[in-house]
Amino acid sequence: MQIKRLKLSGFKSFVEPAELRIEPGLTGVVGPNGCGKSNVLEAIRWVMGESSPKSMRGAGMDDVIFAGTAQRPARDFAEVSMLVERPTEEVSGDVALAPPGDVEITRRIERGAGSAYRVNGRDVRAKDVALLFADAATGAHSPALVSQGKISAIIAAKPTERRAMLEEAAGISGLHVRRKDAEQKLRAAEANLTRLDELMGDME
Ligand code: ATP
């Protein structure tokens, strides 16, 4: 999967709509202190489904919405859209969600109302977006997104955390989510069968 474009509006310091085109190859974000470099990386993690406000350097998720300055009022919503190219081999059981080719994922948060996701303009669940990225061996917690302090965090990580990183890099973390879903369905089916046995026993 390749990230091709990022659009931000009302996200942290990006109060005005901004569009960043990301060309193939290595991309570096440079600029003076406090200009919003980390906010760009956080926007990528956020649109991929980041659910921890703390890891977005906030107390609550509404803190990603432009908070206002002495000159400008605060905004009521923040929106980030990311255009990615999805190769055929990354599309597994979710062709209906997004076929191979260019896919635009959008996350929008309204103050006090939480987040909503869209894929190619269609409303989807947060889980669908998480799976889409997990199948591409990436996501909000991908080790490929290296923010400040991440290197020392990786060195200090517990073996189980390192294993999760390796699984993500190997592209199998999506399978874990699907396995959990399948196990839940299996348990529900087993409970139904037990109930059916009881009912049949009562009838005999
Ligand atoms: P450094 O090089 O010092 O790490 P940086 O370029 O990574 O800085 P960021 O940390 O991305 O900069 O951006 C910090 C700026 O974003 C600060 O000016 C902060 O006030 C602003 N900011 C963060 N959240 C919001 C928000 N919700 N509303 C308005 N501005 C915000």
TrEMBL record:
Superkingdom in the source lineage: Bacteria
Binding, ATP: P32, N33, G34, C35, G36, K37, S38, N39
Signal sequence extent: none
Protein localization: Cytoplasm
Family recorded in the similarity comment: Belongs to the SMC family.
Chain's role: Required for chromosome condensation and partitioning.
Entry text on domains: Contains large globular domains required for ATP hydrolysis at each terminus and a third globular domain forming a flexible hinge near the middle of the molecule. These domains are separated by coiled-coil structures.
Record note on quaternary structure: Homodimer.
Name the UniProt record assigns to this protein: Chromosome partition protein Smc
Portion of the full-length sequence here: 1 to 204 of 1145
